[in-house]
Amino acid sequence: MDRFEAMRVFCSVIEAGGFAAAADQIGISTSAVSRHVAQLEAHLNVRLLNRTTRRMSPTDAGFAYFERCTQLLADLDETEASVAGEARHPRGRLRLTAPIALSVLRLAPAFAAFSQAYPEITLDIVLSDSVADFTEEGLDLAIRVGRVGSENVVARRIGETALLIAAAPAYLERAGTPLTPDDLTRHACFTYAFSATGNNWELEDSHGDPLSVRISGSIKANNGMLLAEMAAAGSGIVYAPCFILLPLIERGQLVRLLPDWGAKRLPIHVVYPTRRHLSAKVQAMMSFLTDWFEKQPTETI
């Protein structure tokens, strides 16, 4: 059995919606298509397709296998084209993960511009604030703020963001305005679930030396935009990246606190699995984002 050919036929069956349609698309007989799929199922010892007289649909295992095969075959095509001496032209599916708030509030225009610049690349973007596993999620690269994650990855710094402290005017009128970092210990402060420091807010004094403040409060969430909106509603003090808080501060919904204390800055990295030879599509995205971040006003990121 030619495993790669069997994979191509199997993917064609899923994409075309049936054996006969796949056979017409590939240019082989329906029986040959069926044989390829049967050999693949026998090799894997798992059913990939549910077959009835009226319809065909992938099993859960079949759909997961289809997604992995699609990426694998695209990478194989790109590798063969490169080895054959063709120009390294970025193409195929690029699956990446990025933080929710950074993507929605800042990166959407960058992704749109990248898609226009590289029309042969299909972007598959997974938004998540957690550190996803490259292998389990089938990722090509990740954009991460702060923590890089596993040591078994390569990280390229493309920018940074400042962490700001803010609260709504209504909250400050009710609870008072903290004038020093120690004052924060007596206020309702929000906790971000994915923070590397937990309930400790890391600041800098006038000399640039680190200062850790232990905070407490009754609200914890795994999404910075949610915490910012709750702060704007007057329920407490939020500590979050500039790209989340600045729009609310500019609209007067939040007031920046302790501006005389240095804002801690978090690096923004493009992260990818350790590989000797990066695909053209991954290199294209890294270069594009590096250039894009360099053109952005520092105070907005």
Question: What's the short story on this structure?
Answer:
The protein is α/β, with parallel strands linked by helices and 301 residues long.
Description:
By secondary structure, the protein is of the alpha/beta class. It has three domains: 3-83, Winged helix-like DNA-binding domain superfamily/Winged helix DNA-binding domain (Arc Repressor Mutant, subunit A, Orthogonal Bundle), CATH 1.10.10.10; 92-159 and 266-300, Periplasmic binding protein-like II (D-Maltodextrin-Binding Protein, domain 2, 3-Layer(aba) Sandwich); 161-265, 3-Layer(aba) Sandwich (D-Maltodextrin-Binding Protein, domain 2). It has ten helices and 13 strands. The protein has helices spanning 3-16, 19-26, 30-44, 60-83, 100-117, 134-137, 169-175, 224-232, 242-250, 280-294, and strands at residues 49-51, 56-58, 92-98, 121-127, 141-145, 153-167, 191-192, 200-204, 210-214, 220-221, 237-241, 255-257, 265-273. The strands form four sheets. Strands 3, 4, 5, 6, 11, 12 and 13 form a seven-stranded mixed sheet that branches. Strand 1 and strand 2 form a beta hairpin. The chain is elongated. The model has no long low-confidence stretch (mean pLDDT 87).
